[in-house]
Design brief:
alpha/beta; single chain; Spore Coat Polysaccharide Biosynthesis Protein SpsA, Chain A; globular
């Protein structure tokens, strides 16, 4: 089974570092990790990018209000990314959703 982890952050540099360190230490880290930054001003993006060589990390920087949509905006982004992975034949369609 493949594991895809998605997180949204905004101005959470220290929490982002703790999250990524936790994932690095897992015996089975995720196959894909997508972190959507919603316009952080505290260096969160720099911290995230610092982990790109240690995790299968994709950092998406957006200037939108995904959280104000109750997660539905992020949900749509995740579905789009999963379909892109399927299109590239990296994730069989029966393994997601």
């Amino acid at each position: 089974m493949r594991v895809i982890t998605v997180a949204t952050v905004k101005d959470e540099a220290e929490k982002a570092r703790a999250l990524l360190e936790s994932l690095v230490g897992q015996p089975h880290p995720p196959d894909h990790l997508v972190v959507v930054d919603e316009g952080s001003m505290d260096g969160t993006v720099d911290i995230l990018r610092g982990y790109e060589d240690r995790l299968p990390l994709r950092v998406v920087v957006r200037r939108s209000r995904l959280r104000s949509l109750g997660g539905w905006g992020a949900f749509g982004l995740v579905i789009g990314l999963l379909r892109l992975l399927q299109w590239r034949r990296r994730v069989p369609p029966e393994t997601y959703l």
